[in-house]
Amino acid sequence: MQPLAMATIPEIKKTAETKMAKSIEALKNELQKIRTGRAHPGILDQVHVDYYGSPVPISQVANVSLLDARTITVQPWEKGMGAKIEKAIRESDLGLNPSSQGDLLRVPMPALTQERRKELTKVVKHTGEESKVAVRNLRRDANEQLKKLLKEKLVSEDDERRAQDDVQKLTDRTIAEVDKLVASKEADVMAV
What we know:
Blueprint: H1 9-33, E1 48-51, E2 54-57, E3 62-68, E4 71-76, H2 81-91, E5 99-101, E6 104-108, H3 114-151, H4 157-190
Antiparallel strand pairs: 1-2, 3-4, 4-6, 5-6
Helix pairs in contact: 1-3, 1-4, 3-4
């Protein structure tokens, strides 16, 4: 049997970099779901409506757009979907209360209380911490792979040390990016 081919130092660093970039994207998506005082169409992405027996996102059965900074409009593509969409939005855990005007649904965003804003900043911080943990786990995985290369005598100690330093720099940059995203979202949530 042939021994398994070990990843090279550039492959290990590239894999770590790719996975850390995916962690940042995942964090951005999570932060988008956290409500601020302003309206944005993406807030309805997780709301599903019954469409001929299967649950589908609202964006697949209606046009979702902004009327103004505090109001989302939902224009169903088929007659009769308006009531189902209205019911789905009401029953979601978003705390929204849509009103229908003919075929058009208006979804006003209620103003956030100071207490609710503080709760949301805690959620934002927690989400940021989860991302940092994920990034640190990726760093650990990369460093373990580098140590295996050294143990198998496939790289020198100097090369392994340099590669670990590079992985640490990548980790520091990624965590700084996480902190920046979290701070930005906190400011967004606290803005009245």
